[in-house]
Amino acid sequence: MAVYLDNAATTRPCEPAVSAVFQNMVEDYGNPSSLHAVGLKAEQNITEARKAIAAALVCDPQCVTFTSGATECNNTAIFGAAKNYGKRKKKIVVSAIEHPSVAEPIKYLEEKEGFEVVRIKPSRNGEIAVEDFIDAVDDNTCLVSCMLVNNETGSIQPVRKIFSYVKRNFPECITHCDAVQGFMKIPMKSAELFADIIVVSGHKVHAVKGVGAMYIRKGIRVAPLIMGGGQEKNLRSGTESVPLIAGFGAAVRALMPTMSVAHSNAEEISEYLLKKLAKLEYITVNSTAENKSPYITNFSVKGIRSEIMLHFLESKEVYVSSGSACSKGAHSSVLTAMGIPDKLADSAIRVSIGRTTTKGEIDVLVNAIQEGYQTLAKTK
After folding, report:
1. Which positions ≥6 away from 3 have C-beta within 8 Å?
2. Spatial separation of the C-alpha atoms in residues 330 and 102, rounded to whole Å
3. CB 223 within 8 A of CB 233
4. Catalytic residue among 73, 142, 146, 326
5. End-to-end CA, the chain
6. Cα–Cα distances in Å, from 198 out to 24, 167, 205?
7. Do the beta carbons of residue 2 and residue 201 sit within 8 Å?
8. How far apart are CA 310 and CA 331, in angstroms?
């Protein structure tokens, strides 16, 4: 029996999403910019998906823009905000544990456009201190960026406290939140985050790959990355991928009502996993934040490099990861920023459970880790 525990990388599309994608590929296949009935039907399906994402974020549907995914959203948000708000103010404050789709655009602005960048490191448990952010923001700051849930450790960041201070004291400063690992997993409302821009992704919530969305608060000006026909309110030109957008909306409509139930199940499974790991003396848990998403747990297997353990687990049809899927095995900048020693970081495993994960699957995982350690430690 295959055990898939890499849901932070991607999730299996749910049936409503698959059905919606199929429907919009073979029947409602019109161009949403066309004025005839077939095009209008496609446009209507986009509108319904926009309403679904807006309902989940508790915002006006007109604040939701669809893109090809969270990476495009984050790039658009950062470059677009910098272009409009970074002409006079040239400072960006960002957490040091952001996803590459945030970290790399900001690095580009630092190296190529002359922006001053202050990266706020977390404590050893992966949590960012509100005071550190507050101390770094000043009158020259144009953008503040902090993710809601870290994709490697599951630590939930104090976004609301950070952003509320920023908007109260520096109202012109843009607040940006990568909420990919928090959306549809932990309760969140756009207004309560005090975020000007919020980014979410389809394939992390049982829709399909290739679609993302960003909430942009009314009145916030973001320069587009892609120009052309003016689709998506001139923020993202190009014919919309109606099947993927419809699938995203269908997944959100189908699963949002059971989010609290899924969260409770995730808490139970996560607690069970941690109790099992605590019995293994060669395991060090890296996900130690007090405020943590139950969907993600990061730990190290003493003396066994991540890649080696991953392949052993794969041979047992147990699928996990060593961190962000986008890193493809590269050294974790997140664990480094947390002050995790290199030896532990090099042996880190990320387990990310899903809505259907069972205790039986956790048993299979732990048994495989035990077997892997006994086998691999002997070959060293």
Report:
1. 317, 318, 319, 361, 364, 365
2. 17
3. no
4. 326
5. 29
6. 27, 15, 16
7. no
8. 15
**pLDDT score for 1:** 79
Close Cβ partners of 314 (under 8 Å, ≥ 6 residues apart): none
d(CA 86, CA 200): 24
Per-residue model confidence (pLDDT) at position 152? 97
pLDDT of amino acid 379? 64
Amino acid at 357: T
> In the annotation, is 326 catalytic?
yes
The superfamily CATH assigns to domain 3-11+259-379 is Aspartate Aminotransferase, domain 1 (3.90.1150.10)
**So where are the chain's domains?**
3-11+259-379
pLDDT computed for residue 376 by the predictor: 87
pLDDT of residue 310: 96
DSSP string, 198-267: EEEESTTTTS-SS-EEEEE-TT-----SS-SS-TTTTTS-S---HHHHHHHHHHHHHHGGGHHHHHHHHH
Arithmetic mean of pLDDT over the chain: 95
Q: Give tens-digit pLDDT for 57-93.
A: 999 999 999 999 999 999 999 999 999 999 999 999 9
- Please say if the pLDDT value at position 270 is more than 90: yes
Q: Give the Cα separation of 341 and 62 in Å (integer).
A: 46
Tens digits of per-residue pLDDT, 298-324?
999 999 999 999 999 999 999 999 865
